[in-house]
Write a structure and sequence with these properties.
Elements: E1 3-12, E2 15-24, E3 31-37, H1 45-56, E4 60-63, H2 76-88, H3 90-105, E5 110-120, H4 122-132, E6 139-143, E7 160-166, H5 174-186, E8 191-196, E9 209-210, E10 215-216, H6 219-237
Helix pairs in contact: 2-3, 3-4
Length: 238
């Protein structure tokens, strides 16, 4: 195994973005690829670790940048300020994640026909919106994502959809779960949802420890959700 890592600059209009790309150079040929969308704080070590882990399984992985090169949130207020413009303008959000998708597809190590996307928290919303846009990706996976519909005109969902959800997540309550299920059913999507009982928001993040605000790491849900991801990627990309 010879994992190669590099930072790649790309653009959405005048906005310069910087993603983290990695793949195993020891594996020949263009590889199936996974786009990774970060949580509300911006592209960080958490999603870069996920990219490395996927690369070790033979995927080319690209942790995209939704905010702009070097933009990261440290405090709740900073993270909210970075995320809010995209949540409030879902056309901008869809365009921004599409720019990341095209940057990934442009890499010579990537088989552009075999691409999936995954995201965490805010990033889960981003990849669900990618599916909602009708993007030509094989599948999308949301980990403890926000489940609010985009309000944009409906497009035919081409991607298979996997939603990995903590049932007690206050940021995506049961009514949101029901709404997203109805939405993707009405759109004729091939979708599935795994709800983990007694599980809060951010269950894959070992740094999450704020039960008062509905966020906590859960080792079992983290492990089970990763196993579900790997099964899903094997189905849609291999």
């Amino acid at each position: 195994m010879a994992i190669r890592e590099q930072l790649i600059e790309y653009r959405d209009g005048s906005t310069v973005l910087e993603g983290f790309f990695c793949h195993d150079e020891a594996r020949p040929g263009p590889k199936p690829a996974v786009l990774i969308s970060h949580a509300w704080n911006g592209r960080d070590e958490f999603v870069e670790r996920k990219a490395r882990r996927l690369a070790s399984h033979g995927y080319a992985a690209f942790a995209l940048d939704m905010y702009g090169k070097g933009k990261r949130g440290e405090t709740t207020e900073q993270c909210q300020a970075l995320m809010s413009p995209l949540v409030q303008d879902r056309k901008l959000l869809a365009r921004r994640i599409s720019a990341g998708l095209e940057a990934l597809r442009a890499q010579p190590q990537v088989d552009a026909r075999r691409v999936a996307a995954m995201g965490f928290c805010f990033g889960g919303l981003c990849v669900l919106d990618l599916a909602r846009s009708g993007a030509d990706v094989r599948g999308v996976v949301s980990f403890h994502g926000l489940l609010k519909p985009s309000g944009l005109p409906a497009a035919a969902v081409r991607a298979k959809v996997l939603i990995l959800h903590g049932y007690d997540d206050p940021m995506a309550p049961p009514e949101d779960v029901l709404a997203v299920a109805k939405e993707f059913t009405a759109g004729g999507a091939d979708w599935q949802l795994h709800a983990f009982g007694n599980t809060l928001h951010a269950f894959t993040n070992p740094q999450a420890n704020d039960r008062a605000h509905g966020m906590a790491y859960d080792e079992a849900a983290d492990r089970r959700s990763w196993e579900a991801l790997m099964q899903f990627l094997e189905e849609v990309l291999r």
